[in-house]
Design a protein that fits this description.
single chain, 3-stranded mixed β-sheet
């Protein structure tokens, strides 16, 4: 079996040599292979850079979030309202149907959402930094 493998490797090496050293089209084939290799290298480098940038941004975001939970500074109502509105899109299918009012850290929700969304939204908001209480006056609508 070993000799069959040697013959197959020798045959493949000979075929590759004929393919790339052909006097008529070998130069073009070598240039194409070189260009494809360079393009692959550039793509790999770009992907590695993008991945490292993404990882660095995630770490910075995690550190910032950890700092925000450690601090005892009160969150003003305007900032808390903006944070809640930003979070709505990840929890509710139609965030435009939910109105948010914040007063002294107390959150009032009005509008409509599905029952599952109401429960998830309440759970998410109760754990947010700066939220003292959550009162939900949301009406349950049909699931989306």
């Amino acid at each position: 079996m070993n000799s069959v493998m040697r013959v197959a490797v020798a045959f493949a090496a000979g075929a590759a040599a004929m393919y790339y050293l052909d006097p008529e089209t070998g130069r073009r084939r070598r240039a194409l292979t070189r260009d494809k290799g360079r393009a692959f290298g550039h793509d790999a480098r770009d992907a590695a850079r993008a991945t490292s940038r993404h990882a660095a941004k995630r770490v910075r975001g995690s550190v910032a979030e950890a700092r925000s939970h450690l601090g005892d500074e009160p969150v003003d109502d305007v900032k808390l309202h903006a944070r809640i509105r930003a979070r709505l899109g990840r929890v509710v299918d139609d965030p435009g149907e939910v109105d948010v009012t914040v007063r002294d850290g107390n959150v009032l929700l009005t509008g409509s959402a599905s029952m599952e969304e109401i429960e998830r939204l309440r759970d998410v908001l109760e754990t947010m930094h700066g939220v003292a209480s959550v009162e939900s006056r949301l009406t349950a609508s049909a699931a989306h």
